[in-house]
Amino acid sequence: MDIKSIRFTFGALSKTPLASTKEKVKEDVLVDTLEQPLNEIVLYNDDVNTFDHVIDTLIYACDHTPEQAEQCSILVHYKGQCTVKTGAYKELEPRCTILLDAGLSAEIV
Predict the structure, then answer these.
(1) What is d(CA 59, CA 88) in angstroms, rounded to the nearest whole number?
(2) pLDDT value, residue 37
(3) Cα separation of 64 and 77, whole Å?
(4) Half-sphere exposure of residue 105: CA atoms within 13 angstroms, side-chain side
(5) Cα–Cα distance, 24 to 108 (Å, whole number)
(6) What is the signed CA dihedral for 101, 95, 75, 68, rounded to 10 degrees?
(7) CA 91, chain centre distance (Å)
(8) Measured in whole angstroms, how far is the alpha carbon of residue 64 from the centre of its chain?
(9) CA within 20 to 30 Å of 44's CA: 6, 8, 17, 33, which one?
(10) What is the C-alpha separation between 53 and 35, in angstroms, rounded?
(11) What's the confidence (pLDDT) of residue 51?
(12) What is the pTM for the complete model shown?
C-alpha cells in the first residue's frame, strides 16, 4: 500500500464530523449541478451591426476575450447564428438583456 492509499483508507474509515460534512457538501453540490438545466444565449446575424460593435458588446456582456468575441462574430456572420454563452437561465437573462439593449439579435434557448 502506498502513502496515498493509506491516507485515503484512513479518511474513509474516519467517523469525524468534519469528514462527513465534507462528503455532504460534495453530494449537495453535485445534486444541484445535475438538477440545473443549461440554457444558451444564441446570437443571430443582422445587416445592421458592425463587427466592432458585436465584438465590443460580447466582451462587455458575456465576458468574452477579444479573440473569443471575434470568433463568435465571424461564426454569426457566416453561419447566421452562434451560441455565445451557456449557463443557468437566471445567469443568462441579464447578459441577454444587455445584448438586446445594444441592438443585437439574441435569445435564450
Answers:
(1) 19
(2) 82
(3) 17
(4) 12
(5) 33
(6) 120
(7) 9
(8) 11
(9) 33
(10) 36
(11) 97
(12) 0.69
Distance CA 93, CA 58 (A): 14
- Residue 21 CA to residue 55 CA, distance in Å, equals 45
Residues in the chain where the model's pLDDT stays below 70: 1-36
Instruction: Give the Cα separation of 24 and 19 in Å (integer).
Output: 9
* Per-residue confidence (pLDDT) for residue 4, from 0 to 100: 44
C-alpha cell, 60 = 462587455
- Tell me the three cell numbers of residue 83: 451560441
pLDDT, tens digit, 9 for 90 and up, residues 46-59 = 999 999 999 999 99
Give the sign of the dihedral formed by CA 79, CA 70, CA 99, CA 53. Answer: negative
pLDDT for 22 equals 67
The span from the CA of 15 to the CA of 75, in Å, is 54
